[in-house]
Amino acid sequence: MASPAPRLDILAPLSGWLVALDTVPDPVFAGKMVGDGISLDPTSCSLLAPVSGTVSNIHSAHHALTITSDNGVEVLVHIGIDTVMLKGEGFAPLVEQGQQVKAGSR
Question: Strands 53-58 and 64-69: what pairing?
């Protein structure tokens, strides 16, 4: 008999309105090509770590990062639609790749 998957609590990375992922105007995310998830229409400006773990990747345009949780699950946090075209303008990372973060921290 297979062991149940470990539980992973994921905090909302910012305040906002929950939006069904399949309704966002981006076919990659709406089609779940990068996996299942949620979308938030933000009402706050500061992004918080949704899980405890290691920052395993920060996109060069600073609009997305991946945190590998303490039990090995990769959680992608992506900000905005078409934000890669901003080439990092308007984004200021407060963490570095390889840094340990705690859920809820900036």
Answer: antiparallel
CB 9 within 8 A of CB 66: no
- What local confidence, expressed as pLDDT, does residue 1 receive? 67
The pLDDT of residue 80 is above 80: yes
Active site residues: 78
pLDDT band at 18 (very low <50, low <70, confident <90, very high): very high
Q: How many helices (H) and strands (E) does the chain have?
A: 1, 6
pTM value?
Answer: 0.87
What is the bridge-based pairing of β-strands 100-101 and 53-58? antiparallel
**Residue 84, burial from CB neighbour count under 10 angstroms (0-12, 13-18, 19+):** middle
How many other CB atoms are found less than 10 A from the CB of residue 64? 18
> How far apart are alpha carbons 43 and 26 in whole angstroms?
20
